[in-house]
Structure formats: C-alpha cells, structure tokens
Amino acid sequence: MKQPILGCIADDLTGAADLANNLVRAGMRVILAIDAPAGQAPPDADAVVVALKSRSIPAPEALAQSLQSCRWLRHQGVRQIYFKICSTFDSTPKGNIGPVIEALMEELDCAFSVVAPAFPDNDRTVYKGHLFVGDVLLSESGMRSHPLNPMTDANLVRFLELQLHGANQRKTGLIDYASVAVSADAIRARITALRMAGVSIAIADTLNNDDLYRLAAALREDPMVTASSGLAIALPAQWGFKASRATAQLPPAQGRRAIVSGSCSAAANAQVLHFLEGGGSAFSLDPTRLAKDAGALIEQALTWARQCWSRDTSQPLLVYSTSPPEAVKAAHQRLGAARCGELIEHALAAITRALVFQGAGQLVVAGGETAGVCIRALEIKQMRIGPQIDPGVPWCYAAAPHLPLGHLHLALKSGNFGSGNFFTKAFSVLDQLAKAEP
Predict the structure, then answer these.
(1) Among candidates 150, 162, 107, 106, which has minimal Cα distance to 328?
(2) Where would a tag sit more exposed on the chain, N or C end, judged by fewer CB atoms within 10 A?
C-alpha cells in the first residue's frame, strides 16, 4: 500500500470533486473522503481529498475542521497540504479563506504561502492581483449577487488582507505576471523578494495552464499551497505522474437517473432552462411553499417522481430550487436568507435520499451547499473519482452497502460550472462508458 503524496482539504464538496477530477486526469489515484476523517484506515491512493463544509460556517468551526483534517493527512505521510478554495474566491471580508490559511501555516510552521485561485480552463484568471471571470472582473460577474458570499472586490491582495487577524499580523503581496510568465526560478526569486519585504502570503497572477506548470514547479517542495483546482492540473507531473485513462475507471452504472439542483448561479439557471426546454420532467421547489408546509411539498415531489418513473424508469427527473436573482432576492426579503437556505437544503436532502431509495443509482447534484447536505443525508463517507463530464466536474462512485443498490454514481457540480446541456450530457458520458465496456 502506497503512502499518499498529496493531502487536500477542500472547503466544500463540489470543490473537492473538482480538485479530485483534475488530479485523476493528471494521473493520480484519488480517494475523496467526506468530512474530517476520524479513525479511518489509511487510504491506498496517491492523493486524498477531504471534503468539508467549511466555506460559510463560523470561522472557529472552519478552523477546527481544517486542522483536524490536516493532522490526519499528515499522519498518513503526505508531503504537501493543498487547501482547496473556489476559483471565484467565495468568501467574505471576515473569512473563511484567510483565517484557515493562517491556521494551517501555524500548524505546519510555514513562514510563507502562495495562493493561486486561477483556473484558466474555466475562464478564471488572475492579473495584477485581480480575479477575472471570463472577460469581466469578479466584482462585475454573477458572483456579485451570490446569496452567501457576494464578491464585490476583485483585488484579491487587498481582499485577502482584510481577512487576516492572526497574532503574526501577516501581510499580503503579489507574485506578479512578470515573474510567473518567465520560469519557476523567477517565481522563487519573487517569493524571496516578497519575504524580505515582510510579506508572508502572496496571490499569484495566472493567465493560462503554462503559468500553472511554472507555479507547480516553483511550489513543489512547499509544505502547503492554497489554490483552486486549477493548480492540480500541473502538480502531479512534478512527482512523475502522467495522464492515464486507467486512473478514472469506474464500475458500470445502474439504476434510475435523478438530478437535484439547489444552485442559483447563472450557469445553473441556464442548465435548468435547457433541461426544461428539452422536454425534461421537472419539479420546482418554492421556498414560500416550503415555509407553509415543507412536509406536504416534499411528499408531493416524491409522489410526482413515483408517477413519472411508473411510466418510464429510464427518464431523468429534475427536482430544483434554482431561481433567477430577482426571485432569490424576493424570497430573501419575505423569509430571510438564512431561513430560505435552511428550508431548501432540508427539502433537497430529504428528497434526494428518498429518490435513491426509490431506485436512483445515477445522481447529479448542482450546487456546493446542496451537494454537501445531500451526500451527508445519504451517509456516504468515501468516493472514487472517475471520468470528467465538463471541466471541474467528474463522475464519482460510492460503494454504499446501506443503500438499495449497494452503490451510487454521483456527479457533484459547482453551481458555476458546466455547459448549458450539462444535465443531459452527464448521463451521456455514462452511456458512452457502458458502450466502451469490454
């Protein structure tokens, strides 16, 4: 049994799957564990990704979970800790990204750490310390109206420093493109200059995948890195791994097909609309109706699903709370943002579990928060990572003896990720895999 080389701590579940996907595509065997491990057997994998739900919880809880995960991963013998954050830097001026970075640096006795949020394959780039989503600044993108972590400042050097409150009074800086575009040696020289200037945490400019490879070469020996999943494209090669189809193989899929969407991102709205316009069967969850009688609406959704599958067990069914920004704003004004979130998460988790017990064996979940509550409702603790559907989104496989089929195929999609036809495309990927089986 091999010791894992890389130990990853992800601040949400879809981000963990996104990271694991890039590591697998680059040739590593990856295990994804749900929540901070406790007493689990050592994993037989090249990399282990621990999926937390620490992005939007109180900072003390996020720090405790992250440190517990870090200590367990170090006990497994990993060479490097990778704190995985969202490529849109989902956070608030109080955290949790900055406080977790500081806590991990203290734990690892790390004097300097690099933050590389870019994911060029998904049009997330950083230039002069400013994060771009496609051609617009983060602060002008759809993330400006995110219900939990609205991002109104694209200057990550400035924004991250607002989050640093540790005893060491750390200062942030920039590994500028003039260094990143040249070589790993130029990056290391820039790091040395920043350290001499009193900087201990630095944002890295990144415009393309070549930049990621230069960063990976420069950071290969660092005790920790903070990054989106983009850097995972390049890190495995630093330890001799090469892309291989074998690392993404999964058992054949079985069972009915279900989609659960709780994200209200622009991408998720477009994906729901595409599914509806294509004639897909769908059930909408309205938070106002949930507030009046959640139990009745949940049962109505499940009755609808049974009726649909009684006519055709092969058709994918969509249950969604995805809504455009104006509808989300109106619901928040009526019920409050926290109350809306609780109602929807509870309903989607209950419906997801029931759909699986009605025979769903192929499940797509859209939205980081939604994926977290649904997977925990299914009591899944560990997953293998399979082939990519779209950049950042793989199929996963969980052996789950407590579930009716004994296993489950899952696609856990960040709200912002995926093409417009993602919901139908996901199942097409499984169909293609089945045809390719010997």
Answers:
(1) 150
(2) C
